[in-house]
Design goal:
Shape: globular
Number of helices: 1
Largest sheet: 6 strands, antiparallel, barrel
Order of helices and strands: HEEEEEEEEEEEEEE
CATH architecture: Sandwich
Pfam family, one: LptD_N
CATH superfamily: Lipopolysaccharide (LPS) transport protein A like domain
Subcellular location: Periplasm
Keywords: Periplasm, Signal, Transport
CATH class: Mainly Beta
Organism: Piscinibacterium candidicorallinum
Function: Involved in the assembly of lipopolysaccharide (LPS). Required for the translocation of LPS from the inner membrane to the outer membrane.
Length: about 210
């Protein structure tokens, strides 16, 4: 299974934003055991070396937590982990991790969440939302788009818009707090232009190896 499912960019995006993100997940997470659980059970495919977990699936590794309805998961001989998690009908898959050394969380949701431990990336696909919050859940920054890719090694993330659909105009949207702010972001919403641009201020999202 290719955890980084490739989607034709021509069909997916109307705009692309690349933002610098000088943040990391809790470094201690990388040395923690991965715990998997579900309500319906799991199936191991020894030939493909893939585990398929279904029914209220939860993956926990240190401060990092992923939750959804169905997870395809594998680990290579070097210990790198890969997966593709989808939510239930009308219920997105969810992702959460704590920032290293700061009392903040990164919280994401999407129709599908993919992770690649070796590339150190996490991808939110379909109705993607990524937020930086305080420990009390107060939102500091928020990014919305059709697809959000966070690269922990390069400390960057990219957001892509999508085709207009019911309830969505397909635009990328961001609400960002002033740099250094610790309170909730102002509700003023900004939208990206059709060409790539740099974001003003704000600290973006994150994720290392789940």
């Amino acid at each position: 299974m290719n955890a980084l499912h490739r989607i034709a960019l021509g069909c997916l995006f109307t705009t692309l934003v690349a933002l610098h993100a000088p943040t990391h997940a809790e470094r201690a997470d990388r040395n923690q055991r991965t715990e998997l659980s579900s309500t319906k059970g799991a199936v191991w495919d020894d030939l493909k070396q893939v585990q398929v977990w279904t029914g209220d699936v939860e993956l926990i590794r240190g401060s990092t937590r992923l939750a959804g309805e169905r997870l395809e998961f594998r680990q290579d001989p070097d210990g790198y982990q890969y997966g593709s998690l989808v939510g239930a009908a009308g219920k997105p898959a969810n992702y959460r991790t704590k920032r290293d050394g700061l009392p903040e969380l990164f919280v994401g949701q999407a129709d599908r969440i993919e992770f690649d431990g070796k590339a150190d990336t996490i991808i939110l696909v379909g109705n993607a939302v990524l937020r930086r919050t305080g420990m009390d859940g107060g939102v500091l920054d928020e990014i919305r788009g059709a697809r959000i890719v966070y690269n922990n090694q390069l400390e960057t993330y990219a957001v892509e818009g999508g085709q207009p659909s019911a309830g969505s105009d397909g635009r990328v949207r961001a609400t960002l707090s002033p740099r250094g702010a610790t309170g909730p972001a102002t509700q003023r919403q900004t939208t990206t232009p059709s060409a790539p641009t740099s974001a003003p201020g704000g600290t973006p999202p994150e994720k290392g190896r789940p």
